[in-house]
User: Fold these one by one.
Assistant:
Number 1:
Amino acid sequence: MLIMAEENKLFDVIVGIDFGTTFSGFSCEVIPEKKEPPKPETANTTKAKKKGNYAPELLLKKTSSAMYFKKDEKKIFEFGDKAEKANEDYKYPETKTEPKTEPKTEITTGTEAHTNSNVEPDVANNTEDKTESNPGDLVRRTKLLLDRTIKNHPDLPARLTLVHAVSRYLKKIRRNIHIEIETKYGHDPKLLKYKYYITVPASWSKQSRNIMRDAAISSKLVEKHNVDTQLEIIDEPVAAAVYAESKNTDIKFKKGDRYMICDAGGETVNLAVFEKDTIEGQKSLKEITFGAVTPSVSSLLDALFEELLEKRLPEWSEKGTSQPEDTQASTEVDGQKIKKYKPRDHVLNIYHMTLKENIGQDSIDIIENSLEKINEIIKATHKDIENNPKIFTPEEIRTEMFYPVVEIILKTIKKQIEIQKGIQRTEQDNQPDERKLKAIFITGGLGQSKYLQDKIKEKFGEEVEDNNIIGVEEGIMAVMKGAVLIHSNPIEISQKIHRRTYGIRLRPPQKKPPGSNGKTDRSNSLIESEKNVEENDYENDKKEKEKNRFHVYIRKNDPVIDNTWITKKMYWKAETLKVISLCAYNGDGEPPTHPKEEDIDTVITLDTGFSINKKDNSSSLEILILKMSFDIDIIDIKGSISNLEFKYPRVEDLTGEKNTLPFIEINPAPFSKFQKIFPFLRRTSKA
């Protein structure tokens, strides 16, 4: 797959968008032929900036990905950092320091208001009174809903769909792109042609990528009839790799060299190992491994902070009964009563707004400032305690929260290094690959932490040539800037790898299957011999632990090879094996032999209620042969049993409700249509 536009001359502006879990941003580049000296800002451009559309921090990837929707409305009232502030003001009006009433500004929409400026007005111009007492919904971490590998994620308000929510945010980004183009380059943004590169996690399914594509169309970033030309969805690790290489040209890579990208964001930490390759002179990369810190960094930090809060302030626990009465009373704002939240809830909200995003900062002062409001709330509710020992210190936050997360990141990096070593250079080579990595590049917001960088260097210096462990310059913007670079520095992905481990269980999916221990079956066949099959053998296989066994077909990080069929054989009996579950495991390394239901995802259920011809009408065992061919997200399945050959409709690895796929007979017997209508014509009978 070649990642680039075939005709660079088709576009005037190249834009890379990183719609992040916690923070988002964009980078744009106007082609040299279109660059002009900056022009003075027009009155209408200034006016457009004041509409709530403008967030210059987007260019620095420091704008929150949060959106604030008014109750029962689908328009964004605020986005980015302002969304977090709006949520705070509505929920906790007693802490609001700004004036509670702002004059409404009359704004004319449409082309009349923009005779000298071509920045389109937003449908939600955010000029309404922001102190109304009708709280809305703060939508955070929307991106997690698109990642099938993440189990615990926030829910959207019922009135919103994923496409709608993401498109609302992309629409705000589009406004900012237009303002940037007009302000910096003096162009009419509506007359230019744009090429967009939107980055997504490597683990995303085709389904999730299509949702992002539909959101881009809905936001009017791209036109539906031209989407394939205007938009490319690319993997974040690839974009980060292109940027990291561009910033470290002193490291000379040759074919076969491998390096790791450690993209440590505020929410997730994703790891990828690439191998340098060339195809007919074209610069290319092989995917070697993909991995991630699980659970996410965000989930780990949330759990650690709540645990710290529970230890320090047990009276604030959800089970606690000693909360001050006045903190649960109601307050009056603009003549209407609003329920005050418990101090614990307020502290958690402040934690999400400030402390969480600064947890990895090297400066003690920044962490201390983030704790200021939290400690004020603690002091206000514990006035009777002398010197108030219940407040938090920056050193405590680092020791109890950040350092444990760093240790988990180090363990995940170690595992990825071990996995890439186990991948052979050639199929004939049975020895582990002991090549050292050429480099480790650290990107992302959390990746800017000097403490984290130093720990990675200390732990893995000997695993990397010349200790090339580098915190990439401006690494927080690596993904979105790398996306722009891809346009002028095309790169071929010469080898794709599987994002998940796929296998089967000889049973339908259940909510709470009984688990048991057992050794992993590494053989390609579930039976060692087809001879001397006895009823007793099958009776042993009927045990619950055998039904729950996860029989692996393809492993995560295995190369994707076209038209390759993997075969497994198993015992079949009509009354006991009516369905087979095709499942996926997201973890790294060897999957569990008997996974818990929460450890795997059911991809699809296969109907195995075959009818086969038995001359003696006996009920003995049959050997079922099941073959599968895997592409990324696409699975083809066929098989045979006795005198029956069959296949299933093509499987797409989608999230959502799972159905049971019927089998389709290959080369059915003559008059098969009549056999379905007239049972006495059937050539088969139930075993």
Number 2:
Amino acid sequence: MGLELQFSAPRLRQIGPGESCEDGVTHSISGHINTALVRIGTFCRNGTVSRIKMQEGVKVALHLPWFYHRNSSGFSIANHSSIKRLCVIESEFEGEGSATLMSANYPEGFPEDELMTWQFIVPAHLRASVSFLSFNVSNCEKKEERVEYYIPGSTTNPEVFKLEDKQPGNMAGNFNLSLQGCDQDAQSPGILRLQFQVLVQHPQNESNKTYVVDLSQERTMSLTIEPRPVKQSRKFVPGCFVCLESRTCSSNVTLTAGSKHKLSFLCDDLTRLWVNAEKTISCVDYRYCHRKTYPLQVPSDILQLPVQLHDFSWKLLVPKDRLSLVLVPAQKLQQHTHERACNTSFSYLVTSSAPSHDLYFGAFCPGGSVEQIQLKQNSSVTLRTFAPSFQQEASRQGLTVSFIPYFKEEGIFTVTPDTTSKVYLRTPNWDRGLPALSSVSWNISVPSDQVACLTFFKERTGVVCQSGRAFMIIQEQRSRAEAIFSLEEEVLPQPSFHRHNFWVNISNCSPASGKQLDLLFWVTLTPRTTDLPVVIIAVVGGGALLLFALGLIIYLVKKKKKKMNKGPAVGIYNGNINTHMPGQPKKFQKGRKDNESHVYAVIDDTMVYGHLLQDSNGSFLRPEVDTYRPFQGPMGDFPPSPPPICSRAPTAKLTTEEPPSCIPSESESEPYTFSHPNKGDTSNRDTDIPLLDTQEPVEPAE
């Protein structure tokens, strides 16, 4: 026979080990299996447990404070037919609420090969979801530990789940849950125990909608929907569940790549959930990846979910010392600083990872002056949202990554300042300082009609080097003039003006503990103005040039008219007259002014010393002659390299004065040239050759 305990209002609430009831009134209920005592649980008032059915005998202990006056037990006993299991606990809900329940003997092990059932009575207009808070499984020799659900309307009753499976949710109406033990291993039995929660709440509009997230074409992407971190409250809070295929529900769900997933939500406030996703883009063969471009965009399937996206991270992996990365945004980016904070609904967080340290480059949002970011090694880019309005601003996202040839600096920023506002820039790892022996550069472009002003936030960096030197280089890309500053010893430069593109390079030493290197600077643009003397000189020069051109045109026109006024020359042939002009015989038949015999481009040695260069066969051995070839390499596309030691001075100024002694002088690097003869050395005498040889006339003899 079975016994049934019926509890009048208020019903009971089960508590766990170490917990106590607020009023101090508890009911401890236990039973027997043969001679072994089995504890069903300890209960307080004001709960959902209305009945407990036991097989064979039952023991109920009522504990009261000494000052509590009570003349009734609070329950009644009735006979019942055999329940064919250890016990049945009935939990009745009249409205929204939750109940936490535990297996027999909790937290110790559930009796071997026993069956325990919970019956839940839920109003038809509400929905129930089950979640396991904690559980352990034992070592089974026979059978299998499991939980079984009897769900009204299901065609597969009972539905069987393992304890580690996601449990059912969004269930309408009454249902049963049963825990089945197994035959345990005698040598190492282990323990079976379970603590779970049932949450009953009103159905939400989203519970009837199904969302599809297609990850079938992805290989390295995962997506997690989970609750936001919130402070716990003692008041009843309806749960937020994500349901797969509308039945298996959980407070957090992870979707893996290679499959298509159907989701629905059972939640009164979807702002309590958020989405975090991650994708890996890696390059194994650098020959295949070189110059390849990949978009970094949130898929549309994620954007259509009714849950806000929190983070979407891309892990970018490159072959070591083979390739680097470049990030190019669809819209220029602004670096987030205290002086100019980002006010958009999302930002990109850029981090580079190295074996010894992680380098946080900063947070960047659309609407700035940064055109691209080059990263030396493996990096991660995280799109983080700050407001639900990201759904409307999602079109502004757009970032591409490309694999480029390897470079040695930690990062290079390409910046084109805005003419209407300051551009604030700061070194990576702002809070912790630039890592030791690392170098970062900024390539700053200056429009042709603007002048850039470079200003530093403070006078000194405060860095103290344990080894090495920390320095900064400011280099004009056009003139190659550069200034080198010691960041440990010198005062940072005063605001400087630049009319052309320039580099700012900051290199760190190995700093002493607590003295880190961090720099904040900004760039502003102003319209370029021309000095009054320059304008006057230009006007006068232009007027003089115009007058000269007019005079030249008038002269040429007059000269042409004079030629046209002269009659044409007429020649008459007379065959009886000797046309040979008497004169002095001359050495050359053609005048020097009519030929180029006096101009030598190159004197070929083989023409002068040819008889000395003949080999045994009579052919000439032509010597190899070096020729000057102009430099054709790139100019102005790479950051300045640290100067040689011999050229570093404690203080350098932006000047184009005489180069240091370790740099070749202009005369030493001059190519070979040929000098043309001076005009004064060229004889103007006539060297024409006469048409006929003539002799002076001989006087006749008398």
Number 3:
Amino acid sequence: MKSNTESRQDEAVAGAPVAAEDSVIRKDDQQQMEEDLQEASEVFNSLFSTRRPKDGWAGLSSGLKSATKGTVAGLASLIAQPIAGAQQDGVKGFFGGLATGVASAVALPVTGICVGAWQVGRGVANSVEAVNASKAGMQWDNEKREWIFYYLNKDMEEVQELEAVLKAEKAGKTSSGDAAKIDINEKKVKDREFYDLLGVSTNASAGDIKKAYYKEARKCHPDKCLNDPEAAAKFQALGHAYQILSNEQTRAAYDKNGKPESSADTNMANEIDPLVFFAVMFGSHLVEPYVGELWIATTADSMMKDVMEQQQALDMENMTEEEAAKILAGKTSNAEVMLKQRKREVKIALYLKDKVLPFLEANDDDDLLVFKVSIQKEASKIADTSFGATFLVTIGFALEVEGEEFLGFQNTALGVGGHAARWRKTRKNTQNNWKLVGAALNAGTTGRKAMKEVEAAQRAMEEKRTNAELEGGKSKEGEEPSTDDEEQAKVAAQKLEETIPALLELAWAINIRDISRTLKNACKKLFTDAEVPMATRIRRAEAIHVIGHEFYSIGKARGGEKYSVKDTADIKARAEVAVMATMAKAQGQEVSDDDTEEMIKQAKNMRADMTAGRGENAKNES
């Protein structure tokens, strides 16, 4: 017979597996409970605004949002729950869903109101901190939900780091495993002429190709090889080779397919850089430091690259996995677009930082006058270019009102001057938005009208061709049917040309909105830069106000507020020169800004002479 001790030992041994099993079950239940709580928390946070509010106004806004969302969600549940219940369990499910819906319709709005009240209280409690932080020159970080000191130079460093990360991520997507290793043997390509021109391996990196191009370009530059009649041709061929190999997509296509049969037509899209094209088209080279790369240009650049990648993706069946991955990884992401805009704003802020230095270092009124006169001369030079007056008005108003707003909040009682400037800016932005809507409607209407007229002309030509064929292949005038095609092409070209002013007016409305928003953010970065004391930031704002006032005054005097793009001849001349300039730069040739303006003038004169000649011939014939 077992002793009590032995019996207890046997019971412990027998119960050990059960205890272990119970422990596992408890852990599973606990893990499931944590997952459910996490999911419920995510749903709650997505439904109600629970982030830390900046101040009392932000708390009130957040509270109203929560109350509204709760009410809307309750009504939606009241409607959706009975329907869902009826679909699952008929009449019984309908009434069960109705009960759940009624409960949700009561609970969700009440919860929203409670969360809203809590957010308002948090906002009021944070108001004192907000006032003190704002006076100290701190900025509210919307992501971290806290007050921070902003540093302009540090922002640029972060932008450069993020650029490097994005490039590394793209490079990582193009290969599997050891991406850093390069095969000892050269990569097999269909044609290596361009590689030989640059004197590089088919495995050469983008940096190696760039270095080789500059090295070879110096050897055969026409200005340095005056005695070599073939120098210009060599230099052009070298530039073309570099243009192909410096772009990931065109290089992949060249490695796979070799040189295209018709390089002039096939590579034209690849060699046209939208950034260069729009800079020439709008004459923005003199104002680029103030506006950066226009949004419309960067968007067109991204779209062209994406289209090229899609065209290459159509032939992915015949590609290697590495080539296909490189194409898929090359698409422009939202993160890249946002980073590019952030970099644009930081670069403008850094330029303005250097631009206002003479104002900050001025010792007396004479120095300030010298600064003012230099801005006036710069503005007059910009006004002499095409669309220069419009640029001046847009840039000038943005800089003037941003400086006025910052100074108003810093120097006037209760920030009255700042609020007045903010209202002035809001009113102007509203006007620009309405102009944008009007321009968009006008462009759409004009485009549809032109397409209908072209289609009507095509139908008329087809009817005429059919009648001519029925009469023996000749038209009534005895002309061959092929002449109808030429006439149809002329009509189509004429109608499409008539849409150009409306499209360009829309582009200008987009540019104005883009420039205003970009300069707003750039000025904010300049005025909140914690690397300098508040007194220096105030002086920066005063200098920016002076620049803006002079730009706006001179632009307005030159008619910049009432911009017009009705001169079709001027538009066509600029477009032609823009294409020539961007093609020349793509081939490695330097085209100065003064050269492009002179080419535009010559193109306009040639068109005017041609128009006058046609008019004279028409008179003589009559």
Number 4:
Amino acid sequence: MKDLISINCVKLLIPALFYTCVCSSSVEQKIYVELNQTVPCVRLLNATHQIGCQSSMSGDTGVLHVLETESDLDWILSSGPHPPYMVILETAFFNRCCRVMMRMKNSSRVAGVAVIVSKTGLADNFSPHTTCPNQNTGVYSENYGPDLANCNVTVWNPFGNGLSYEDFAFPVFALKDENQTQVIRKCYEDHNQRVNGSAPKYPLCAMQLFSHMHAVTDTVTCMRRTDLQNRFSINPEVLCDPLSDFNVWTSTRPLNNSAKGHAADESVVIAATRLDGRSFFWEQAPAAEGTVSGIVTLLAAIQALYPVTQEAPPTRNIFFSFFQGEAFDYIGSSKMVYDMKRNDFVIDLDNVHSMLEIGQVGLHSGRSLWMHSDPISRQNKSVDTEVLEMMDRMRSAAAGLKLTVDHPSVSQPLPPSSFQRFLRERQIPGLVLTDHNTSFINRYYESMYDDAENLNVTYPPGLTPDEQLVYETDAAKSLAEVATLVARSLYVQAGGNESNLNNITADPKTVAQLLYGFVIQKNNSWFRSLLPPEVTKKGVNSILSSGPPQFYIGLGPRVHGPAHSVTRFVQYILANLTGSVTNLTESQCQNPSELSTENKDLFSYFWVSGPASVNSTSEPFCVRASVRLSKAVSPAFELLEYGSRNYSTWTESRWKSIRARIFLVASRELEMLTLGVGVAVLLLSLLVTYFISSKAELLFSSARETPTTTY
């Protein structure tokens, strides 16, 4: 009988538990409004400190308050009766008033900040970077040009407020969904807005932000704790990861990738630019002027150069490199120079004849470009002679173009550039080409507002996406001119015959397509045709999601597997611009070493989708090109020198949950009353349960039937 009772109880209990779970989920959906398209500020660490933002482990909650005027800050920080507050910042206050964020940083009355992202009220300038980018890992130091160190001569980023390098103990999110922003505003206006200066009454609209970071203090501490977990824990947990990805490189004459160290009979002219950018918020780095202008210029220059270098090869090889992670203390260039020193790269520093780096070349003010050089290395007569000759060649190459080329004062140092990492090891003749004489012209350097509009990429109304893709904007025409200048200068610098210069002209249409793909829409027909078929399918690693790519380096292959999306775009674009189409099948393309006619040491092989036909289908094919990837991870992590002052030590903290939601919160008195009623119900239910249990024999027993006996 007792077993039967137990079985019946279990049968009743299971549906009850299921019903409870379903109801609790339904109740949660009725209480909370989940916010989509939110982007957090995350924690980054280096050898000495931590920067960024984080929430507590269970998330941070506060009553919403929209900061409409700076006087509202006093209400939040002192007189408001319902702390802590979750502050909603309009774009104008976030990008104009760094002091607002700094005042809130040290207040216990602020639970977090949510920034409404829009172009309304955008300040004339906003750069959350420092005024002297990468000042501790460049070439200038107490041992090399001490008077030029720490931007003593030129403050390169005068608009920098350093906000990205502050450490906030509360979460800071960006709100990108305009519809949900309106929901938040209505919730605030209905429940939280002051009437005639008086405090609002409960219930109040509140927000909860989750962005707890696992890493603390600095990279040294984080990597030590991760190492201890790997040694002694059954289930080790990684707390942080080094920022890392890949550099992309190629050359006009293929280099043997299996041979490392000094390349015999090779003199190389390096042409370089950076691949990455950053902003205050995680993976929100459009980097249009700061990065894309250089990428597009160098890609277009390579396309213009390639046919001429095959028909009339210059005496020197031209080595093109796109460095990843340069925004974080020159990760990519440091790694390449480190490998060259160790004879672990296809060339070494002795092979390098000279270097030309493409910096910010968006041409914001007029048509002037500036050739920056290093005044310290130019004290060497042979270096100075070569630098002067490079300048003369570039001026000559500018003839017939709508550009003027000049150089700053000889005493001015180099701007932040990858070239500085090469100079730390060797006095190499070189120039950095930019659109600024002294300080950056870019008003939104390393911010989420360095976008297409900042680069002056705009289109007439009414154009379809495919028409925009090939439309030659003013920016495209300007960068095509710059690319032509770069290509011609490199050809002559490499020893090419000047009579061939008229055959070297960058294609404005290609520049237009590159600009559209990098600053407007990466998921376009041209980019799709250049990529592998499996990547162009929907839902595959989100490499072709809507919008422009983001240029934050991230964690690369250590965590996410393949190279960063921007790296892959550049890799495949470069292969298609410089490679040759083969008749190899897909399996042969993926395993070319099995064919005696192919050389995997000199070439890479790319299976690409090909252009779509009228019926939207495409025929994939194999491209052979001398395009390679090389690791872009700081040597500090190979050397296990996490406190290094010579190399980048930046890591990104790991986390489990990033989310945001709003809800109505009751008064403290009502919450306590609800808690009291709940406890009372619990006690009553325990009492009833005890009573039923003690009387179970009486309550659940049935009358025994008198047995019938048959004789």
